From TrEMBL:
<dbReference type="InterPro" id="IPR043429">
    <property type="entry name" value="ArtM/GltK/GlnP/TcyL/YhdX-like"/>
</dbReference>
<feature type="transmembrane region" description="Helical">
    <location>
        <begin position="16"/>
        <end position="35"/>
    </location>
</feature>
<dbReference type="InterPro" id="IPR014341">
    <property type="entry name" value="Ectoine_EhuD"/>
</dbReference>
<keyword id="KW-0472">Membrane</keyword>
<keyword id="KW-0812">Transmembrane</keyword>
<keyword id="KW-1003">Cell membrane</keyword>
<dbReference type="InterPro" id="IPR010065">
    <property type="entry name" value="AA_ABC_transptr_permease_3TM"/>
</dbReference>
<keyword id="KW-1133">Transmembrane helix</keyword>
<dbReference type="Pfam" id="PF00528">
    <property type="entry name" value="BPD_transp_1"/>
</dbReference>
<keyword id="KW-0813">Transport</keyword>
<dbReference type="InterPro" id="IPR000515">
    <property type="entry name" value="MetI-like"/>
</dbReference>
<protein>
    <submittedName>
        <fullName>Ectoine/hydroxyectoine ABC transporter permease subunit EhuD</fullName>
    </submittedName>
</protein>
<feature type="domain" description="ABC transmembrane type-1">
    <location>
        <begin position="8"/>
        <end position="196"/>
    </location>
</feature>
<feature type="transmembrane region" description="Helical">
    <location>
        <begin position="56"/>
        <end position="77"/>
    </location>
</feature>
<feature type="transmembrane region" description="Helical">
    <location>
        <begin position="178"/>
        <end position="199"/>
    </location>
</feature>
<keyword id="KW-0029">Amino-acid transport</keyword>
<dbReference type="InterPro" id="IPR035906">
    <property type="entry name" value="MetI-like_sf"/>
</dbReference>
Length: 205
């Protein structure tokens, strides 16, 4: 089914770009929540909790249907990437926080003893060690995001589910298209999860 394969490519694109957005914003939220000023931590904390506690589909509808009434309109795929990235960034921020907190206290003390500037401490000492710890968890969220991409069909993104529904509406055959989509999700998600487990074992050595 060429249409479903084309939808698979759209699904993969949404997952990749959404993941990049979530990784970048998640780090921003994690660092902002560690800021010494409450004027920074409180708004970020409220925003993060709001996004976590509202459904992704509602957020996608808001971005796609409400923002254009305010003059902010994006293409469906772009909207989907923003929605996925923003939603999952609130979870990756917690992953980053755990990774940063897991860096031994001695590393902070060593950086202080060497009189390293704060920026240098973060970029050369803390974040490289934190990233090593969080890679497997971030990978798990990539898989979760991949499995959430069918929600993008609700904002007319031509992903796998959208194409399967289009085929079914034409042929009145729902079994085959939907089954193919389900199999494709398993074929991609399961091997990826195995690779992540192997990576996790390698990193914790």
């Amino acid at each position: 089914m060429p249409d479903i394969l084309r939808g698979l490519w759209i699904t993969v694109q949404a997952t990749i770009y959404g993941s990049l957005v979530s990784f970048a914003l998640g780090l921003v939220w994690a660092l902002a929540l560690r800021a010494p000023s409450r004027w920074v931590t409180w708004p970020v904390s409220i925003f993060v909790e709001f996004i976590r506690n509202t459904p992704l589909l509602v957020q996608l509808f808001f971005l796609f249907f409400v923002l254009p009434t305010w003059g902010l309109a994006f293409a469906p795929l772009t909207t989907g990437v923003i929605g996925l990235g923003l939603h999952y960034s609130t979870y990756t921020s917690e992953v980053y926080r755990a990774g940063i907190d897991g860096v031994p206290e001695g590393q902070w003390e060593a950086a202080t003893a060497l009189s390293l500037p704060r920026r240098r401490t973060w970029t050369a000492v803390i974040l490289p060690q934190a990233f090593r710890r969080v890679v497997p968890a971030l990978g798990n969220y990539v898989i979760a995001m991949f499995k959430d991409t069918p929600l993008l069909a609700g904002i007319t993104v031509a992903d796998m589910l959208f194409e399967a529904n289009s085929i079914s509406a034409t042929t009145f055959d729902y079994l085959e298209p939907i089954t193919v989509v389900g199999i494709l999700f398993v074929v991609i998600s399961y091997p990826t999860s195995l690779l992540l487990r192997a990576l996790e074992r390698r990193l914790v050595r």
